[in-house]
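Can anyone check this?
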Amino acid sequence: MAETRSVLSRFGSAFNRSNFPSFCLKPLQVKCFEYVLRGKHIVAVLPTGFGKSLLFQLLPDFLPVKLDRNIVIVVCPLNSIIEDQLKVLQDRGITADVLQLTSDDREATDSLFHSKDIDESSAERCLKNPSAMLMNGDVQIVFAHPEVILSKEGRDLMNSKVFQRNVVACVVDDAHCVEIW
């Protein structure tokens, strides 16, 4: 029972720091947070609309702060989900950004996955350099496609001191949409 009180206390703090609407958490959401707080890995296979995104949206403010700040990496294969999440997080005052592929990295990962099907919106939004906020670790939630994490840019970011010291969780969202693991 003391663990549940601790979890609920952390929820109060996380909700107060962000612009989350008032609502009741479901028992399975609380259980997931209890496991995360204990340092356990979780797999949350829950129905559509259950509130799985809330699990990672609250993590930066929910978990004890590492050294400077908490960063959560969300690996997601779908642009539409990432775009929707960015809008929601912006409305809630949570800083988020997307790690993009450079054109050189795109060619390398294309050959890695034997596919030339990178969708046009990804190509249009492709950046030569990641944002300064992202590189400095001034972003609470970083979204990336699976192939971006494997790219040189993704590996460099994950190996940077800022990310090594401050990443508190890595979340895979919509994992059923990833073709190759």
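Reply from J.R.: I decoded it. Residues 108-129 have pLDDT under 50 and may be disordered.
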